[in-house]
Write a structure and sequence with these properties.
The chain is an alpha+beta fold and 403 residues long. 35% of the residues lie in helices and 22% in strands. It is built from 10 helices and 15 strands. Helix 4 (110-126) crosses helix 10. The longest helix has 21 residues, at 268-288. It is elongated, with a radius of gyration of 23 Å. It starts with a helix and ends in a 7-residue tail after the last helix.
């Protein structure tokens, strides 16, 4: 298929993709509650008369079957927003659209991901007669809380999947560029959540109480020392403490204190080792203070890193360069320490997560993800759609991944 034809079809949906993003942005629904977003997506799906499967109350898998032999490709986007207030301005000006939901906003770009997947669906549908294979468009709900990826994976296990693809906007990369790592791309994570239990009492007599605040503070200060001396210096693990809380009054020792945060890593074994160190430090430090500590919320499996398949990553780079030239794909690209459920997909199937740059300081985008001033440079959404579509077309036409 001629590249110009692919681009012409993508150009035809450029404005609708922007409109998709703005509409979904106003909905800004939390994980597992994306009912308006789901309804909006299904309006287009039903208009195209594509079959779909409701995997959870809000997660969807839509199928485009060309009825011809070819690869089975998963394209995935997440749908949920964050429980935080959105600033009416980005880094330098009033934002184009703002969430209509109080204390809920798309401060990570999932609205853009949905919009690009909808645009890609429209383009691939319009090219259906010249394509070979099957495309599964997966709209994952609750990515931030991990509420539907398991159900989507279970549904995909019943299908013949060859490869998976996702594209995530990235505020640290300049607009007009796409970062594609060959290998580790985004970090795995281990939640850090500890409940320290003591004995409450009057603030005037610490000897008659067991102060969990002191124990919690000691745990927090002891963990970094253990990390420095016990973790492999060649395998980075970050220690992100975000909350330590205990008590509400100046003269009352509380019964309990809480510690929360996360650890990020690119090596799964080192991540598990870090989690075990935290539990060991917490238990021994709490015992020094005659406290107990509940580590049960750290006992589960840690989140896994996003690791791109090398051959498919090369193919993705080629698809982008065909359109935008080699300067659009940085040769040296720094891995992102945020985490993504797409790592689970890549654990099962070879594929790629591409990072689409949205940093445009003149427009006002470039604030860190999960920040109240985070905004998306909408001019790059077209780049995301074209890169996605051309990647699929290349795979369906059987272009050698080794080229």
């Amino acid at each position: 298929m001629e590249l110009k034809k692919v681009m012409d079809h993508a150009d035809a949906v450029k404005e609708s993709v922007i409109n998709h993003r703005r509409k979904i942005h106003t909905f800004a629904e939390l994980g597992g509650k994306e009912f308006k977003t789901k309804k909006y997506i299904l309006e287009l799906v039903k208009r195209l008369d594509l079959p779909y499967e409701e995997v959870t109350d809000t997660a969807l898998i839509v199928m485009l079957d060309t009825k011809k032999e070819g690869p089975h490709i998963v394209l995935r986007a997440d749908m949920d927003a964050l429980p935080m207030k959105e600033n009416s301005e980005n880094l330098c000006q009033p934002r184009i659209c703002i969430s209509e939901q109080e204390n809920t906003c798309h401060a990570c770009g999932h609205d853009a991901h949905c919009a690009m997947l909808l645009g890609s669906m429209e383009v691939l549908y319009s090219l259906k007669e010249e394509l070979s294979g099957v495309v599964y468009f997966c709209f994952e709900s609750g990515e931030e809380i991990g509420s539907s990826y398991r159900q989507i994976m279970e549904a995909l296990h019943e299908k013949k999947i060859d490869t998976v693809w996702a594209i995530h906007v990235y505020s640290a990369l300049e607009s007009g560029k796409i970062g594609i790592c060959e290998g580790p791309c985004m970090a795995g994570f281990a939640p850090l959540e500890l409940l320290v239990k003591g004995k409450g009492g009057h603030g005037s007599r610490p000897d008659l109480s067991i102060n969990p605040v002191f124990a919690a503070a000691s745990i927090v200060t002891n963990i970094p020392g253990a990390f420095v001396n016990q973790l492999d210096v060649e395998k980075t693990v970050t220690f992100g403490l975000t909350s330590i809380r205990g008590g509400e009054s100046f003269n009352i020792f509380p019964e309990e204190a809480y510690i929360r945060g996360s650890m990020r890593f690119f090596d799964r074994e080192e991540g598990k080792k870090a989690k075990d160190i935290v539990i060991k430090v917490a238990e021994h430090t709490a015992a020094m203070h005659n406290c107990e500590v509940d580590c049960s919320k750290m006992a589960g499996e840690v989140g896994i890193p996003v690791i791109n398949d090398v051959l498919y990553a090369k193919q993705a780079k080629k698809a982008v360069k065909q359109i935008y030239g080699k300067e659009a794909v940085p040769d040296v690209f720094q891995r992102w320490y945020a985490s993504e459920s797409f790592g689970r997909y890549l654990q099962e199937y070879p594929g790629v997560l591409a990072l689409l740059g949205i940093k445009n300081l003149e427009y006002g985008s470039g604030a860190e993800h999960h920040n109240e001033r985070f905004d998306v440079d909408e001019s790059v959404l077209d780049m995301g759609v074209k890169s996605t579509v051309n990647y699929v077309v290349n795979l369906m036409e059987g272009i050698n991944k080794n080229n």
